[in-house]
Structures are given as C-alpha cells and as structure tokens.
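Quick note —
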Amino acid sequence: MRIQLEERWVKQLLAWPESGMGYQRVDVRLTDGREAKDVPAFNGQEVEVPEDFAGGRIATIRLHPILNAQ
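Predicted structure written out below.
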C-alpha cells in the first residue's frame, strides 16, 4: 500500500539523491517500532509499505544503504 508523506518527509527526501529515475530506496520506522526496509519512495511524495502498516505514523525515514558488488 502507498502512504502519502507529510511535508517534513517530502522536504527530506527531495534533499537526498535518487536511487533511480523518480524514486529512492528507503528504510521506514513507525512510531510503534515496526520497520520496513528497502521500500520505494516515489517522487518524494509517497512510500510503498506492507499492508499491515496502514494507519501507522512514520517516526523516521532514511536512505537504504546500497552495497556495491565488486
């Protein structure tokens, strides 16, 4: 499911580099402690999280670390 982001998260995502064209891979933590890792954030406006995150409030968003294979 997609969650529309609050303005403070939009501003934060717009300041970060994209993971690909129009999206970022992020880790999201809710205020109740649940986490979703490596989920897409589209155009800095919304994130796609598992269905059981419905109604949850986002506590933090951070860029998902990308490991480069060498």
